[in-house]
Predict the structure.
Amino acid sequence: MNRRRFLHAVPAVASSSSFLFGERRALGEESDGKIVLRIATLAPNGSSWMRVFSAWNNSLKQATGNRLSLRFFAGGAAGDERDAVLKMKAGQMDGAAVTTVGLGQMVRSILVLQAPGVCNTYPRIDAVRHKLAAEFETAFDKAGFTLLGWGDAGLARIFSNRAVRTPADLRQARVWSWRDDPTWQSVLDASQVTGVSLGLPEVYPALRTNRIDTFPGTAIAAIAFQWHTQVTHITKDSQAVVIGATVIKKEKFDALPGDLKAALVETSQQAHRALARTIRQDDQKAFDTIVQRGATAEDLTGEAAAWLPVLQTARQSLVGKLFSAELLARVEQIAHEVE
């Protein structure tokens, strides 16, 4: 499957849901030599992620003569990211496209990529993952998973119904804390903030009832989940790229015939390159859209001195819990060498 053919498939399948739910066989059933891989994701139908995933599925079916395909359980149909990982381990799902929480459930040390204030630009995250690619792939392999590709969720920002420019401002807010997200929790702890612990599906109702008025996230995700309709401020600055990746159970990957395995890897590489471009472009467009619709864009440049000790304290608090001091130091060095 050549690159041009794959990219041309994206808009063609984006308008059809048949590529997501066209498979009618029982979950995980293999018949007539055809294999369906069940992939869980929180990405909603119609989102940038699902448009690319649909194109990936189409390309994979074409490359394998319909012998191998992907069935995505979009919009959290398989549960939260913790649930998705548990279902993979239990054999109820074959793979998952997850972000920080899900990846951290599989390989804790991978959250060094989310260390507050380090990989806060795309060039930095790209450089770190390129130089440490073999190390990260080995870590997933040892945990029983095969890393198919990286698919980030955009730049992490703070959304709120009030101006949040400093850690002191954050202490006055009712802030969402995603269960099982230790990196954001470390920022809250360093800021002396007690967050409101919620699962992702609980965020929108909590915003509607004013149980929370502030949340961390990316612009593209805020629009996809309609959270942006409930806030009036968004930070221009970001202290992290929200990491994401698609993984499959290693035993499932290893059991594939050689030609199907090769086709899965090739189409996956194409899909995740397209995904990186799409998400980065769409996240910026989403930020612009939110501001154009009336949200105030908060420039935190002048508040860097207030955030610096908080971010340093936050990431140091994770040493020994998520990753080693040596790994953090290497990531910091690689990141700081990038403009």
